[in-house]
Amino acid sequence: MKYQSLWALNPEEDIRKLEKDLDVDVLIIGGGITGLTTLYFLRNSNLKVALVEANTIGSGSSGYTTGKISYVQELVYQKLNKMYDFETAKKYLDSQLAARDMLLDIIKKENIACDLEKVDYYLGARNDKDILKVEKEGQLLKKMGIEVKDIQLGKHSVLVVKDIYVFHIMKYLRALKKIGNKNIYEKTKIIKLQKEDYGYLVESASNKIKAKKVIVTCHYPFFLKPYWMPFKVRCEKSYIAASKSKKQKWSMNTSDGMYSARYQQDYMINLLGSYYISNKLNERENYQVVTKFNKELGLRPDYLWQNDDMMSVDGMPYIGKMEKDNDKLLIATGYNTWGMTNGTLAGYVLSEMVMGRTTDYDRLFDPLRVSFYRHGKELLLNSFLNMQGFIISKIKGKHRCPHMGCSLIYNPVSNTWDCPCHASKFSREGKWVKGPSDKDMDV
Ligand SMILES: Cc1cc2nc3c(=O)[nH]c(=O)nc-3n(C[C@H](O)[C@H](O)[C@H](O)COP(=O)(O)OP(=O)(O)OC[C@H]3O[C@@H](n4cnc5c(N)ncnc54)[C@H](O)[C@@H]3O)c2cc1C
Question: Across the strands, what pairs with 321?
Answer without folding.
Answer: 330
